[in-house]
Amino acid sequence: MRLSAIGAAALLLAGVAACGGRDAGGGTGTAASGQCQGQQTTGITDKTIKLGGIYPLSGPASAYGDIPKGIKAYFDYVNAEKGGIGGRKVEFVVRDDGYQPPKAVEEARRLVEQEQVFALFQTLGTPSTSATWDYANQRKVPQIFVATGASKWGTDTAHPWTIGWQPNYISEARVYAQYLKTEKPDAKVAVLYQNDDFGKDLLGGFKRAAEGTNIKIVAEQSYEVSDPSIDPQMRNLAESKADVFLNITTPKFGSQALAADAKNTGWNPVHIINNVAASITVLKPVGFENVQGIVSSSYYKDPNDPTWQSDPEMTLYRQKMQQYAPGADPNIPYHTFGWAVASSFHKAMEAAKCPTREGLRDSVRDLKGVQVDMLLPGVTLNTAQGDGFPIESMQLMKFKGERWELFGSVIDTRKEFGPLTG
């Protein structure tokens, strides 16, 4: 037995040497020879790939804790039935930061230095991602498809290892401004926004998109994520008598704003709620009868929309959620979001020229019309040199009955409004 063990070790060492040896992060090399030699292979072997995600499983944004359930269900399905990604089984390690940036940094360090993950796949929230991207880029660890639409993920050139996924907040704001130009060209708008980079990004994008029009912002109120309630802000906004309310919030505060709007019988504005707080789980506690006609936008398929009842990808999603996440409700759109972003990672990893950190970094910045079946028809992944925004198309939707209904056509904001630049 001792001779067999020595022989196996010798073969392993020979294989490592042929693949470029041990990398700077302490992992053993699995990269192919030639162009991939010497690149980072921490967290990836010929048979496995380890990813780390950071989410607010607790705290004021805990509604987003449903996202990793959809991601894990997708990876469990691919591992069990497809042999993994490129023959590698995916291990997805999830950490809770409570939506606290210092905690996010702590968890990022733990994932990179202790868990030895191949990549940080999804850090949720603009504050948490802002707190961790310096560290990820200094360590040259891919921080892939972060769950935030801040525009800086796509325009910044100093952090090549970090990239977003969902439509950026400025592009989303442009869509709402375009809607008002058509439907209410003389709109008087009251805005509630989260007082951080997320809220300011979307609000700033809306202001710029409204320049040169008759759309006017007549009242602004901000809130902190530590605030117990936004009722005072909502009372102040109602006093403005604005005929449009732009609700730039995360789920907890989105639900509070909807409830406050419903209780205020003297104020009945057109209510626009940003995509990140438009989940059915946000609306349901308020009462569907109180949220009729509110407007938002989307870019992926809603499991509550009968349009997708016979859709092959939605059918597969429902089957595999039941099989691999039996305690999770497949009708919650955050699960669908998770499935879609995991599928996007699958496509990007398969397209990587090298099974290395550098290979993944380069792959996600060279996406050309990549189709992900859980995205809306007409929405594809596209990136290029100088364009770090994988998704910039979305479609407006209005809440009717007990679900969102899409209307109009998919809007490619690159074509309609021009590309964003740093």
TrEMBL record:
<feature type="domain" description="Leucine-binding protein">
    <location>
        <begin position="48"/>
        <end position="400"/>
    </location>
</feature>
<dbReference type="InterPro" id="IPR028081">
    <property type="entry name" value="Leu-bd"/>
</dbReference>
<protein>
    <submittedName>
        <fullName>ABC transporter substrate-binding protein</fullName>
    </submittedName>
</protein>
<comment type="similarity">
    <text>Belongs to the leucine-binding protein family.</text>
</comment>
<keyword id="KW-0732">Signal</keyword>
<dbReference type="InterPro" id="IPR028082">
    <property type="entry name" value="Peripla_BP_I"/>
</dbReference>
<feature type="signal peptide">
    <location>
        <begin position="1"/>
        <end position="20"/>
    </location>
</feature>
<dbReference type="Pfam" id="PF13458">
    <property type="entry name" value="Peripla_BP_6"/>
</dbReference>
